[in-house]
Amino acid sequence: MTDTLPARDAPPPASESPVKQARKPWLSALLLRLHFYAGILVGPFILVAALSGAMYAATPQLEQAIYSHELHVPVAEASVPLADQILAAQGVVGDDGSLVAVRPAPNNGDTTRVMFTDDGLGESETRAIFVNPANAEIRGDLTAYGTSGALPLRTWIDQFHRSLHLGEFGRLYSELAASWLGVVVIAGALLWIFRIRRARAKKDLVRPDSKVKGYRRIFSWHASTGIWLLVGALFLSATGITWSQYAGHNVSNLRAALNVGTPALSTDLIESTDTATGDHSGHSVDQASTEAIKPATFDAVLAVAQRVNVNTGFVEISPPSSAGQAWVVQEIQHSFPTEVDAIAINGQTLLTTDRVDFADFNLTAKLARWGIDTHTGSMFGLFNQIVLIITALGIAAMVTWGYLMWWKRRPTRGFAQAAPAGALVRTPRWGTATIVAAAVALGLFFPMLGVSLIAFSVVDGLLTLRRGDRRAESDGVDGHSQSAFPPRRAAEHIT
Question: Residues 416, 489: one domain?
Answer without folding.
Answer: yes
